[in-house]
Amino acid sequence: MKLFHLVALCLYSFLNTYIFAESKVSSTQTLILRSGQAYEGQVQGVRDDHLIFIRPSAGGQAEYTFTPDEVERIDFRTAAVKTNAAQLLAAGRADEALPLLQVIYEQQAPYLAFIPEPDRAYFLKLVVAAREAEEPYLSVGVAKTLLPYIQDETVRDQLESLILLGYYQLPLRDDTRQLALEWIMNHPRYGTSALGSYILARLDLDDGQHEAALLTALEPITFSSQYPMAYLQHCYAVAILAADALDDETEARALAVEMAARHLPWPTDDGLDNHKPLYKKLLQPPPPPDKTGLTSEAK
Length: 299
Prior knowledge:
By secondary structure, the protein is of the alpha+beta class. About 55% of the residues lie in helices and about 10% in strands. The chain has a 5-stranded antiparallel beta sheet with strand order 4-3-2-1-5, with no helix packed on it. The longest helix is centred in the first third of the chain and has 23 residues, at about 1-25.
């Protein structure tokens, strides 16, 4: 019963935030054309790749249509909602920011072809917030929708990485494995991220394929340099867990010491935080051997 009340309370809070956000989103927009003209009115959808815009006219309304090339941007008047969302995200309250970001996205998603790229890239915040709030379907769905509209390579790479991370959270093991293999093929071995190797190794670890997990996780570790590499600490974590599962304490301890020496923090996402006690244990000096040559642990 307590769990039911907790779920109901969370749902009530979500709905209240969503309704609040909707009330702050204006039903009137400003359409700015490349010619410099600006019009007040309402966007009414897209027909045959043309934006439909309604403006008041004498005695009623007039409908206008515009191509993407004619439109500079659309001001949806969401500054207040964006400010609230930014404050919540800065406070680490992604679950509360999520409904605000959703309202903005749902209003603007049909018009992605008609808004400038920085406005599209804003919704990267929604993808990240959905992942942090453990809403992988939403995170992956929004990221896949945005990807065709994004030209900036940095933003594209972030979206592709978040799609792969989202897939790992979904019950789509074969699809996730294929996506991880494609990610590895499309990124340089000496690149700035080891995400593909981490996901592939993590899938093997989850499936009890400890030797495969260890070998896959060790590859980016072996080829890494002094330069930062995203998800390298995740590879160390999987390698340590795989070595421990194989009863290879020497390898696990060596990896833990090396990870600490490189000042890489133990990762806390995807359930890895639960294994931090093992990491801390491996950083402790091993017990000295007794006269028989066995450690006190082995005895």
